[in-house]
Automatic annotation (TrEMBL):
<protein>
    <submittedName>
        <fullName>Phage baseplate assembly protein V</fullName>
    </submittedName>
</protein>
<dbReference type="Pfam" id="PF04717">
    <property type="entry name" value="Phage_base_V"/>
</dbReference>
<feature type="domain" description="Gp5/Type VI secretion system Vgr protein OB-fold">
    <location>
        <begin position="18"/>
        <end position="84"/>
    </location>
</feature>
<dbReference type="InterPro" id="IPR006531">
    <property type="entry name" value="Gp5/Vgr_OB"/>
</dbReference>
<dbReference type="InterPro" id="IPR037026">
    <property type="entry name" value="Vgr_OB-fold_dom_sf"/>
</dbReference>
<dbReference type="InterPro" id="IPR013046">
    <property type="entry name" value="GpV/Gp45"/>
</dbReference>
Length: 182
């Protein structure tokens, strides 16, 4: 076999290499991949989106990945991570579910048949939604609204089983009568 033929064979073998994530670098986003005894230099990984819309999800050490090297030179490759393995199996098996799970037990799941979004957080977790200067924060044991107003339209507010609409103070009589007198 000639040198040119062996170099062509080597380049073709390196165009697509399976391996596992060996190390993760966050700034700039790069990973090392192990394939057998070979370990890559730090290479960029694919993202779901990396333009005007961006998605950040660093690969995990041990996660299965593929190195794509169009030139056949793996040191110039790019990495696609996110292949299911026994170590990291699929997190659902239902056709109508899109789900994301995190290491601490948090999960976000959307059922597009039932039109239901479900978010689960561990007991020590909390969720925050901020729009402008208004923040809604939820954690085990309570909900806090900062710089905002709660408006109930066509419903009732019930706290400890007491209805705001039905609640009366004996010294005030009917709330509607008291409030209309002012």
């Amino acid at each position: 076999m000639s040198f040119e033929q062996s170099e062509t064979d080597r380049a073709m073998a390196c165009m697509l290499m399976a391996g596992t994530i060996e190390a993760v670098q966050y700034k700039p986003p790069r990973v090392r991949v192990r394939s057998g005894d070979w370990v890559s230099s730090f290479l960029p990984w694919f993202s779901v989106a990396a333009g005007g819309v961006r998605h950040w999800r660093p690969p995990t050490v041990g996660e299965q990945a593929m190195v794509f090297s169009v030139s056949g030179q793996p040191e110039q490759g790019i990495v696609l991570a996110g292949l299911w393995t026994d170590q990291f199996p699929a997190n659902d098996d239902r056709e109508n579910i899109t789900a994301m799970d995190w290491q601490d037990g948090a999960r976000m799941e959307y059922d597009h048949e039932a039109h239901k979004l479900k978010m689960l957080l561990p007991p020590e977790g909390h969720a925050m939604l901020t729009i402008g200067g208004t923040t809604l924060e939820m954690k085990a044991g309570g909900v806090t609204l900062t710089n905002g107003t709660v408006k109930v339209v066509g419903g009732d507010v019930i706290a400890d089983g007491v209805s705001l609409k039905q609640h009366k103070h004996t010294e005030q009589g009917d709330f509607a009568e008291t409030s209309s007198a002012h």
